[in-house]
DNA sequence: GCCTCACTGTGAATAGAATCACAGTTGCAG
DNA sequence: CTGCAACTGTGATTCTATTCACAGTGAGGC
């Protein structure tokens, strides 16, 4: 298969273009696309059409094609999309084709769970280092990762080549923490703390509030019951 | 303050209406609104205008007013919104004014973290019981919650009056698991497993893929660097 | 009691995302 | 080599969400 892949890469290298603007919604679907492509590749599928592919991801074929078209042209008409090739391209687009170091802030219950969560590694992310304010935790090693004091931020982050951060700390002083992290050169923050973070200059913030998800479900279930 | 609250509840009971259709996006913002209202109440704020309120939540005042208007009329012109009253109403709308029992499926790293995560209780959710396929885990008690075998589903769920479920299992057989859970009378499923679940009949499914969030951030950070 | 001021709730306007539908292409069969 | 069948990429359209902007209203001052 490798030869075929090489051939495919030479003859069918996609016209990747750095498009003006890609919708955030499209970006969110990208990882789902990549995951399905990986599965297909594992199953030995070489080409797939938008119809079947869309079915596996759970979107309409039109939406899939539209999403892909923001990044260039991938499809080989009447053969469909080259699974391996496109998987690689997706990874390259998302910047996950090589492993990236991530720092964790807050080694509480959630933080420790994230440290032992294997899903990150599978997708090209490695939590390399942890930080906490609690002096009892500083200096200890959790799931193979050393925990530093917040004060050591500026020296430790460059050492581990960290460019992304995950926040799982207490809500108190969350914004200040985010600001410090951004100032230390981090450009993207994933926030698990149920409190709003105003994105520091030059830094993207993504909020994930798992209780909010439950609340949404609760609303839907109740609403349905009432109707 | 309690007297005032009582008075407020009597004199200013909001015109709650079961509106035809509420946008999902509105629902997602609801929990943010409620969280801010709780904070304001703790700080002793009694009334607040849409301008300041929206600022705290991070939305525009127009959007806030529009969102609220799907549920009825809350505002007291020229005094603004009654913080306590509205917080209660939000809880009632979301069905979180009384604690709800939730079942957890999969007691791996993530599952155990969720068991010890205190955030759920604070918002009216209680993980009452856990299930796992691993015979080593069945019968044990994790963070105060007993772990049952999947086979006991049908008898145990009603016992704990569970109406919502959280999935944190292996990806294998995820859809089958979701179907079984729904068949046992659960109407809402929060899925942490990075694999698509087709909602079973009469059941809502909400997917939360934390790696996907990191991938999104990675894309944004890279895109910015390229531009 | 009346006037003023500023706020809410909402119709109208805009922006944005998803879908439709088809022109253009390409592999393949004969 | 020619014609067919079916797929992609995309302009046009529809649908949905957000923002604008203002009519109507109630609290407070005088």
Describe the structure.
Two copies of one chain form a homodimer. By secondary structure, chain A is of the alpha/beta class. Chain A has two domains: 2-92, Arc Repressor Mutant, subunit A (Orthogonal Bundle); 100-212, NAD(P)-binding Rossmann-like Domain (Rossmann fold, 3-Layer(aba) Sandwich), CATH 3.40.50. Helices cover 46% and strands 19% of the residues of chain A. Chain A is built from ten helices and eleven strands. In chain A, the strands form three sheets. A seven-stranded mixed beta sheet of chain A has the order 7-8-6-5-9-10-11. In chain A, strands 1-3 form a two-stranded antiparallel ribbon. The longest helix of chain A has 19 residues, at 24-42. The radius of gyration of chain A is 21 Å and the shape is globular. The N and C termini of chain A lie far apart (55 Å). Chain A binds a DNA duplex (30 and 30 nucleotides) through helix 4.
Gross morphology of chain A: globular
Number of strands of chain A: 11
Residues in β-strands, percent of chain A: 15-25%
Mean pLDDT of chain A: 90
CATH superfamily of the largest domain in chain A: NAD(P)-binding Rossmann-like Domain
Strand/helix succession of chain A: HEHEHHEEHEHHEEEHEHEEH
Instruction: Indicate the CATH class of the largest domain in chain A.
Output: Alpha Beta
> What's the arrangement of strands in the largest beta sheet of chain A?
7-8-6-5-9-10-11
Number of domains of chain A: 2
The chain-level structural class of chain A is: alpha/beta
Number of H/I helices of chain A: 10
CATH fold label of the largest domain in chain A? Rossmann fold
Largest two-chain interface: A-B, 67 and 67 residues
Radius of gyration of chain A: 21 Å
Main sheet attributes: strand count, strand direction, barrel closure of chain A: 7 strands, mixed
- Termini distance of chain A? 55 Å
Oligomer: homodimer
Give the proportion of residues in helices of chain A: 40-55%
CATH architecture assignment of the largest domain in chain A: 3-Layer(aba) Sandwich
Poorly predicted regions of chain A: 1-12
